[in-house]
Design a protein that fits this description.
By secondary structure, the chain is mainly alpha-helical. It has 4 helices and no strands. The chain has helices at 2-28, 33-66, 76-92, 98-124. InterPro entries: ATP_synth_I.
Length: 125
């Protein structure tokens, strides 16, 4: 489980680095502000989504180890509502590109794959 926490920590740091670059781009590239704003909104929502899912997976592992007889939920409705919230904010604000918000939302989840592979290869050697 420590490997999952380290993957999420690295993904969060990479996302914060991308956010800092995007904020600089938002300040200096005036023509691309809607696209950059959408990416910023999507990255923030995607990071919250990734951290929440990590917390739920950690809870599932504890649930499996404890062998209790209660129900466990992955919080699917909460995660869907988070996606809808990011999309609705992007639709409501005309200064934000919806497509770039959706793309930005999936970047942290896609970052978990290469980060997991790299950290897994490092731990084996």
């Amino acid at each position: 489980m420590d490997n999952l926490n380290s993957i999420v920590a690295v993904v969060t740091r990479m996302t914060f680095l991308m956010l800092s670059v995007l904020f600089l781009g938002w300040a200096f590239l005036l023509d691309f502000r809607p696209i950059i704003s959408g990416l910023i909104l999507g990255l923030v929502g995607g990071t919250v989504y990734t951290r929440y899912l990590s917390m739920k997976v950690h809870g599932l592992v504890e649930f499996a180890v404890s062998q209790e007889k209660k129900r466990f939920s992955f919080g699917f409705l909460t995660r869907v509502c988070l996606i809808l919230l990011v999309t609705m904010v992007a639709v409501k604000l005309e200064q934000v590109s919806v497509i770039s918000a959706v793309i930005g939302f999936f970047i942290p989840q896609l970052l978990t794959i290469p980060v997991g592979l790299v950290l897994g290869a490092r731990s084996k050697s």
